[in-house]
Design goal:
By secondary structure, this protein is an alpha+beta fold. Helix content is 49%, strand content 14%. The protein is built from five helices and three strands, in the order αααβααββ. Strands 1-2-3 form a three-stranded mixed sheet. Strand 2 and strand 3 form a beta hairpin.
Length: 128
């Protein structure tokens, strides 16, 4: 509030009903936002019987690269759409992901990677 008083005249400050000061998000809080945003994607992929997993490295990478101190957590959604959803969508359209697969997002050498593990084939039934 002292900072506001140094920059604005009292007449202007008297017209403001309320001032809300925000403390910066911590990295664990940003990572929690990443989890919440990817949960929505998990539900959509579940319709195709796909499982989405994020490694700790991927969660940290997304939080670090997608968070902006000025805009807060808002850019995280766009980062996830661009770096995770778009890659998965392209792989689905190309037929590279079978129903029942597990899609794992990881971070390697400073880049987000997407790995696809197809479901294990069902073991043949033994004759009776």
């Amino acid at each position: 509030m002292d900072e506001l008083r140094r920059h604005f005249r009292p007449e202007f400050l008297n017209r403001i009903d309320d001032v809300v000061l925000f403390k910066p998000l911590t990295m664990p809080e940003i990572e929690r936002v990443v989890d919440l945003l990817t949960e929505d994607l998990r539900h959509r992929l579940a319709d195709r019987r796909l499982d989405l997993r994020l490694t700790e490295a991927a969660r940290r990478h997304i939080a670090d690269q997608g968070f902006d101190p000025v805009y807060g957590a808002r850019p995280l959604r766009r980062f996830i759409q661009r770096e995770v959803e778009t890659r998965i969508g392209r792989a689905l359209l190309a037929g590279d992901i079978a129903d029942g697969s597990t899609v794992t997002a990881d971070a390697e050498a400073g880049h987000l990677t997407i790995h696809i593990a197809e479901p294990a084939a069902a073991a043949p039934h033994a004759p009776h």
